[in-house]
Design brief:
mainly beta; 16-stranded mixed β-sheet; 5 helices; 46% strand
Length: 468
């Protein structure tokens, strides 16, 4: 009984994630070639219920009783005891997606020792991440290609739906195994995920004290499946909630049911799917000095492509509300309620925001990485490392922050990543205490073998700094 104004609850929350994996790898030594090849298969199931509103909510307000000096809680509780319900609401079902997905991957790699001081690594990996389906055929998506503007509903001047207008439950909505052009899925399948890799390790002097290493590779990433669940949780026609006013606990369905006139907020996933991937490369020079010191200097970089990010497909074009004369240039929108008028000029009338996860974003990272280590007698060691880098992106997170301007990502999104650290310095040491090193006898075992260690870390960016 929350706050004395409503009685609510829902059935058990159930969340299951099941993954069945089969894999195999083999290695063949053929002369100066070491060939590896293998495969992996994953069958994934995620089923989770929304667990919100399916049991119904009874609201008790104090307005149906005279004040009489009683508090709002007392009046609401009195209505509860008498069974007087101001509003009863209930979701149409306890939505429980049953998402299934299959993933196949194959690879082959050849470590080719051309000469004693030169090894070449060649490989390729193919990833077939099949689009997820819903075993209950309730997986939906918003597809702009099937939206028909002629079927858009009428609006009030405030941006709400006209009550007499049929709600466009499936205008632009596709459902798997029903009207989806992709059959059991709700997006296209990406079948070109071929990822080559190449690398080398070369000792130019042949002494074993110098090494030049270089590498380049492409790496594909499967998509998290929770974003598809959100489509099922949010979109029509399976998710609806009715409200019935002035009823009783004995008969909550006694009055006429009403549905909100506010346009629905939809959730969408890529219709034209492109698998996220990164290109990674590095060039490293390593050198050993004497028998106790070494130095490594490396250039390391990567480029992320088709990264996931959230956009509002139904966002109003910047300045359109003013240029169209809908509102004056001095208008300031301060709440979601004041923004309802914008529903009349959205690209897809009939809906509010369409929060879509799309693979439209990119990132890049470039760095200079230096590492040095010195070993001392008695197993003592000291090491320092320094990284000078820059990390840029046009999307900070995969699904928690929507892009500010759908129509120009570079204008408002591209800049330093929130994880960017321009300078990173690390230093550490381990010092073996010089007494009782042979650890003989009781005293030796008790007092010998002790070490003293320490670490220092400093990283800074243009926005912040941190020190440990």
């Amino acid at each position: 009984f929350t706050g004395g104004t409503s009685l609510l609850g829902y059935g058990p929350y159930r969340d299951y994630n099941r993954n069945h994996n089969v894999f195999d790898n083999a290695t063949k030594i053929w002369g100066n070639h070491s060939i590896k090849f293998g495969m992996t298969y994953n069958h994934y199931q995620k089923t989770e219920n929304a667990a919100t509103g399916n049991q119904g909510t009874f609201a008790f307000t104090p307005t149906s009783l005279p004040a009489g000096g009683a508090t709002n809680f007392e009046q609401s509780f009195a209505n509860f005891l008498m069974g007087n319900v101001a509003t009863f609401t209930q979701a149409s079902e306890d939505v429980t997606p049953d998402i299934r997905a299959q993933q196949w991957e194959l690879y082959v790699q050849d470590d080719w020792r051309i000469r004693p001081n030169l090894t070449i690594n060649l490989g390729v990996r193919y990833s077939d991440f099949r689009q997820p389906i819903d075993a209950k055929n309730e997986l939906t998506n918003f597809d702009p290609a099937v939206y028909n503007r002629a079927n858009a509903p009428a609006f009030t001047s405030a941006g709400n739906l006209v009550a007499s207008t049929p709600y466009p439950y499936l205008n632009g909505i596709i459902v798997n195994n029903q009207n989806s052009p992709f059959g059991s899925a709700v997006s296209s399948q990406s079948n070109k995920n071929v990822a080559p890799r190449i690398g080398l390790a070369w000792d130019p002097t042949g002494t074993g004290k110098t090494a030049i290493r270089a590498g380049y590779g492409i790496f594909y990433d499967s998509t998290l499946y929770g974003i598809y669940e959100q489509n099922v949780f949010a979109n029509p026609p399976f998710v609806n909630s009715v409200s019935i006013s002035n009823v009783t606990l004995d008969d909550p369905a006694a009055g006429p049911a009403t549905i909100s006139s506010s346009p629905k907020v939809l959730h969408a996933t890529p219709v034209t799917f492109q698998t996220p991937y990164t290109q990674q490369w590095s060039l490293t020079l390593e050198r050993q000095f004497g028998t106790t010191s070494e130095l490594s200097v490396a250039y390391v970089g990567n480029k992320g492509t088709h990264l996931l990010g959230e956009v509002d497909l139904n966002s109003v074009y910047p300045g359109l509300a003013w240029s169209s004369g809908l509102v004056s240039p001095s208008t300031v929108f301060t709440s979601s309620t004041s923004e309802t008028i914008l529903n009349t000029i959205r690209p897809y009338p009939g809906y509010n925001a369409i929060s879509a996860i799309e693979p439209w974003f990119n990132s890049n990272y470039n760095s200079l990485q230096v590492y040095s280590q010195k070993r001392f007698g008695g197993d003592s060691i000291a090491a320092v490392s320094y990284t000078w880098s820059k990390n840029l992106t046009d999307n900070q997170t995969d699904r928690s922050t929507a892009a500010q301007n759908l129509y120009n990502f570079n204008a408002g999104e591209y800049g330093r990543a929130q994880y960017d650290r321009t300078h990173v310095f690390n230093g550490n040491f381990v010092y073996t205490l010089p007494f009782f090193r042979d650890q003989k006898g009781f005293v030796g075992h008790t007092l010998g073998g002790w070490e003293l260690s320490g670490r220092s870390e400093e990283h800074t960016s243009e926005l912040q700094s941190h020190h440990d």
